[in-house]
Amino acid sequence: ELKVEQNPLFLSMQEGKNYTIYCNYSTTSDRLYWYRQDPGKSLESLFVLLSNGAVKQEGRLMASLDTKARLSTLHITAAVHDLSATYFCAVPDTSGTYKYIFGTGTRLKVLA
Amino acid sequence: NAGVTQTPKFRVLKTGQSMTLLCAQDMNHEYMYWYRQDPGMGLRLIHYSVGEGTTAKGEVPDGYNVSRLKKQNFLLGLESAAPSQTSVYFCASRKTGTGELFFGEGSRLTVL
User: Which CA distances in Å does A109 have to A13, A20, A33, A38, B86?
Assistant: First the structure.
């Protein structure tokens, strides 16, 4: 059974600081997705990582994928309050079912 | 471009009542998904569909039924609602190629 684990589950950080969110998964998937969810809102796509070594950057966020380690990281550089949200990683099931399994999410709070 | 649209946005049911959630997408995507989101549980897959006329069970299918009579629509039904089905329900469709998911705004269901 595919398992996707994120850590930390909660993260409170000061503005201007750097931090990394980790996403570990248990299968051989070569794809991984990051989504952002604001309170009471839907999920919006942040990054699509489609191969080993993929790195994507958008503003203060950078995501990377290491398929050999079955690990993806979401790095936050010089955090600002607007980044406060819950971040989810998602991995497609590689058994041919076309299912996606989500991590439990990391709730990020950036303090001014 | 509407993307993925869910109706209704909010609904309150009494135990034992039935209802249907409608998901409509205008992106011509083949695959569609229904997730539920509960505090501390992340997103859990209820049912999904890989094409018109096909459906399959996800992680938590009990108490739900689905239908995909038209490619653009994916319906989620609750035949006899239970308080344990109080949740926020998200529909998503999958972009061909990248596999990126696009989510609807969510439907908040309360079962009393």
Answer: 6, 13, 21, 11, 26
Dist. CA A67–CA A80, nearest whole Å: 30
pLDDT tens per residue, range B31-73: 999 999 998 778 999 999 999 999 999 999 999 999 999 999 9
Q: Which CATH superfamily is domain B4-111 in?
A: Immunoglobulins (2.60.40.10)
**How far is C-alpha A53 from the geometric centre of its chain's CA atoms?**
15
CA distance B8 to chain A (A): 14
Cis peptide, bond prior to residue A92, ω within 30 of zero: no
Which residue shows structure tokens 């996800």?
B58
pLDDT over 70, % of chain B: 99
Helix (H, G, I), strand (E, B) or coil at B44: strand
- Residue A74 pLDDT: 98
Q: Could you tell me the domains of chain A?
A: 4-111 (2.60.40.10)
Q: Which of A21, A25, A33, A102 to mutate to test the interface with B (most CBs of B within 10 A)?
A: A102
Among all residues of chain A, which has the CA nearest to that of B5?
Answer: A42
Mean pLDDT of chain B: 95
